[in-house]
Structure formats: structure tokens, C-alpha cells
């Protein structure tokens, strides 16, 4: 098994600027964070996010529309030179009406991450409208990735997180992890912890390989993931069931976002994300149907805008993705679509924004 994993790792392309979280997208799917009018309007993490905040301030707009999401927002199948994402198209539509669209998206982003990032961004920019997709697959995710840990350094963010049960869990879990996301709770204040930190610091100054060990570990994990999928015949069409504990935590995070929005008079558009429907969906249908009912019920509970966009994008606008096994065979992509699909999504969100804003201000 180890031999297969290393063979897959060393036969994979690790060159160029392609990030690890983009590797699984495959050659047919492109990542796009294009600037609009010279402004950075779509970011991923805190490291690049300051550019989005700085460019918003330069634009001198009063009302920020914040769109959070996963890789569906920044990935385009079979991308052509002039193709744009839904976020770039929507930004242009809104700016003439006095609104400034700012987007943050991460691969497989869960609602717990959306919650922490929402608190950070809404404190650092005057958000008036939040656009929040809910993806059944991402209800299986949990925790906060290391690229977003900087939000916990903001005292105003931690104070807001401390007001909710899920926020307190996120803060506790973060305090027990290192920069690579590893659980450090058992080593707190021990001789082992202190000696390992000292040794790591010394080795990092001597070896770039040692300094890049989190990336190396992640790449090897990706190879192990592909190998596991190959062994057990797991692919994008395989049925994914909910993970109860994570599902509950993500629902709590969503409610925390909606509660925080209501307290600050931020309007919310909650939508179920587009899903490929020309083939059998990779979900347990009973669980998926229950999920949709629950999301609508939560939207009603908080009296916010809700729309189900799961069937918005027709089958011909979807594509394929890179192999999730060692076979290298392209697979059906249930999450990322072509530019025509992005236009449909941008138009649909624009229509929902029109419904909750002053018609006179929207052209």
C-alpha cells in the first residue's frame, strides 16, 4: 500500500503555482479569481483577503454584499479566455446601484468556516446583505482550516464567537491545534511540546523540505485518499451519507450566522446550491430531502430570503473532473459547471437581491 501511495504521489504534478486544494479539480476545471475594474473582489483566505478589504475601501461604496461559498464560486469547467464566474458578473451588475460585491470561497467550505469568516468580515466591512449557499456535501465538513486561523486573532471576532455554543467549540478546538491543524491538546505545556517546537524551528532554518512538511503531508494524504478510493471503488457518484455530529455542528453554525445577521440588521439570502441533476445524485435521497426541508424551515424561522437553486443549471453546462482514484480516469463533476452555468447563478442571485432591496435603487 505504501508503495502505491508514493508512486501516485511522485507521478502527480506538483509543479507551478497550483495549490493543493486545486489538484482534485482536474485539467478541465479552471480556478478564477479575476479582478473587476482593477479591484480584487473575490478572495479565499485571510492572507489574500486584505486585498479584497482594501480595494473595497478604495471604491468608496456604502453597502457591501458578501457572498460566501465553496469552490463552485471560483471554478469554471472548460473555461474560455473571456469566461467569468458568477461573482464577477454579479459585481458589475451591483456596482452601478451603489452596492459592492465581495466574495470569499474555499474548497469544501463548511458552515463552521463560513461562520468564523462571516464574523471577521462583517466586523471589518459594512456588510448589508449576506449571500449564503448551503451544500449538502459540505455538511460533512468540520472545523476551521489553518488558512483561516487568523480570524481568531481578532478580539472582536472572538467576543462574538464566545456568545454561541458552536463558536465556543471552534475557539476551544483552535486553541488545541498547531499551525498545520494538528491536535496539540495532549502536549500542552509539556517538555515534549517545548523541545519539539525548538527542534522544528532549527530544522526549518536548515531545510526547505522540513519547513514545507505540512504541504508534503497534505500531498501524501491526497495520494492516500486516491488510493483508498481506488481500493474501495469510491468515486463522485458513490452515495455520501450525512455524518450526524458534523451535520448538527454545521446547522448550529448556520443558525449562529443568521442570529448574528439579525442582530446587526444584515439581510440574508440563503440558497441551496446548484447540483448536477441529469444523472443520479450521489446522496441518500431520504437524507437529502430531509436536509432541504430543514434548511427551508430554518429560513422561515429567521424570516430570511430563501431559494432552492439545485436544478438551476442544466446538464449540458456541467463537465468532468480529475480522477479521485489512482486510475487517472475523468469523472462526473457534480459541483462545478461551465460559464453558462455561472451566468445563470449570477442572474438568480441578482434577482433575489432585487427582492429584498429598494426597487428604486436597483437598475
Task: From the structure above, extract its key features.
single chain, 363 residues, alpha/beta, Rossmann fold, six-stranded parallel sheet, two-stranded antiparallel ribbon, 12 helices, globular, disordered N terminus
Rounded to the nearest angstrom, the radius of gyration is: 21 Å
CATH classification, class level: Alpha Beta
Kindly, what is the distance between the CA atoms of the first and last residues, rounded to a whole number of angstroms? 60 Å
Strand content: 5-15%
Strand order of the largest sheet: 2-5-3-6-7-8
Oligomer: single chain
H and E order: HEEHEEHEHEHHHHHHEHEEEH
Largest sheet: 6 strands, parallel
Return the average pLDDT rounded to an integer: 81
For CATH, the homologous superfamily is named as: SGNH hydrolase
Helix share bin = 40-55%
Quickly count the helices: 12
Number of strands: 10
CATH topology: Rossmann fold
CATH architecture: 3-Layer(aba) Sandwich
In short:
The chain is of the alpha/beta class and 363 residues long. 44% of the residues lie in helices and 14% in strands.
General description of the model:
The chain has 363 residues and is α/β, with parallel strands linked by helices. The chain is 44% helix and 14% strand. Strand 7 (267-272), helix 11 and strand 8 form a beta-alpha-beta unit. Helix 4 (111-124) runs parallel beside helix 10.
